[in-house]
Amino acid sequence: MPPVFAHGALRLYLLAVLEEGPRHGYEIIRALSDRFGGTYSPSAGTVYPRLSKLQEEGLLETILDGRRTVYSLTVAGREELDRRRHELTEVQENITASVRRLADDIRLEVKENMRGLRAELAASAESARAQARTSHKEPSHEAAGNAALLKEAEFALQRFRDDLRVELRLNAARTGFDDVSLATLRTVLDQAATAIRQTLRQ
Predict the structure, then answer these.
(1) How many Cα atoms sit within 13 Å of 110 on the Cβ side?
(2) pLDDT band at 2 (very low <50, low <70, confident <90, very high)
(3) How many other CB atoms are found less than 10 A from the CB of residue 13?
(4) How far apart are CA 117 and CA 63, in angstroms?
(5) Residue 192 near residue 114 (C-beta atoms within 8 A)
(6) Distance CA 25, CA 40 (A)
(7) pTM score
(8) pLDDT per position as a tens digit, 35-81
(9) What is the CA radius of gyration of the chain?
(10) If you placed Cys at 60, which of 39, 55, 128, 183 could pair as Cys (CB 3.0 to 4.6 Å)?
């Protein structure tokens, strides 16, 4: 996949982000992620070296806010941004194209994962049916057996929900949660529910 930012574009875009006001490093990363709709989030190893370079060049200045370093534009930084203002339009157009490309990649990955999930569900259902055909339960035990299997299925669904709920909250605490993540989650769950219904009706 082509790089999200062309050579030198991230450096310029960091100046544009900080034109909106001082921010500490995590806020800068979140601002970049928000502008990509959550489809791309630059790593700290990508952002902080460039911030340090901009500071060395006198385009940024820093102050300490507790244990955090807050970055802001210097007069020279604003002048640099003003001189290159015309380049920001091209950078923004490239970002828009990158967002669309990344969103397409995510949709493709979700579709591929759902195909694999449907295949696994179908295989599991066929295995269960085969076991049921080869078992020789007495008719009097059939109702009790069905109740036990239903209980086990309900337990599996509850465990699936609980596990994903924990993972969802941990991920939200680490990287945040946005509209794109919510839409992706809804799409995956809808497709999973459809695949399960189709399997149960066979």
Answers:
(1) 18
(2) very low
(3) 22
(4) 50
(5) yes
(6) 16
(7) 0.46
(8) 766 666 778 888 999 999 999 999 999 999 888 999 999 999 999 99
(9) 26
(10) 55
